[in-house]
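Researcher: Following up on the earlier apo prediction. This time include the ligand. It's fe (ii) ion, with the SMILES given after the sequence.
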Amino acid sequence: MNTLTGTRSDRSVGDAEPGWLLRELRSDHAGEYGAVAIYQAILALSRDPEIKDFARRHMHTEIRHLGAVEQLVPEWQRSRLLPLWKLAAWTTGGLPALFGPRAVYATIQSVEAFVDRHYSSQIDRLEVEQPDSGLIPLLSSLRDDEIAHRDEAAALGQETGLSLPLSIWCGLVERGSEIAVNLARRC
Ligand SMILES: [Fe+2]
Ligand SMILES: [Fe+2]
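Model: Understood. Below is the ligand-bound prediction.
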C-alpha cells in the first residue's frame, strides 16, 4: 500500500495558483471528505465482519488522504457543499451495506475506478501545464491507493457479471460522482 510519507505538500494553495487548479483541488478535498464518509457508513451499517475489516482499512487510508488535502486546501477554499457531500456519501456507502458484500464490493469498485480516472486526468494536465507545481507526487500517491482499493474490491467481489439492479446502481454511482465533482469544482 502506498503512503503519503514524503509526498505531502508543505504549502497550501492560494491566489498564485491558476483557477483551474484551485477548482480541481477543491474537488479533491470534497472527494476525500466523501470517501471517509462512504467507509464510515459501511462500517456503521454492515454486520459482515469481512466487509467491516475491508471498510476499516480503506477508511484509515482515506483519513490520511483527507489530512493531506486539508493541508493543501485552506478552509476558505473548500467546497461550501460539504454537508451535501456527506449525505451523498452515506447513501453511496450505506445503501449497499444493507444489501451485502456483493453490493459493497461492486459499489467501491465503481467509486474507486472513477477516482482513479479523476486523479489521472489532473496528473496528465499538471504534467503539461504545471510540471513544477510539486503536486504530481502527492496526487500520484493518492491515485495509487485508490487503484489498490479498486483492485481489492474487484478481487473480493469475484463476480462474473452484475445483476441488472446492481449494474444500474453502479451506473448511478459513477454518474453521481461526476455530477458531484463538477459541482464541487464550482462551489
Ligand atoms: Fe482517497
Ligand atoms: Fe480510496
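Model: The radius of gyration is 16 Å.
Researcher: Noted. I'll compare it with the apo version next.
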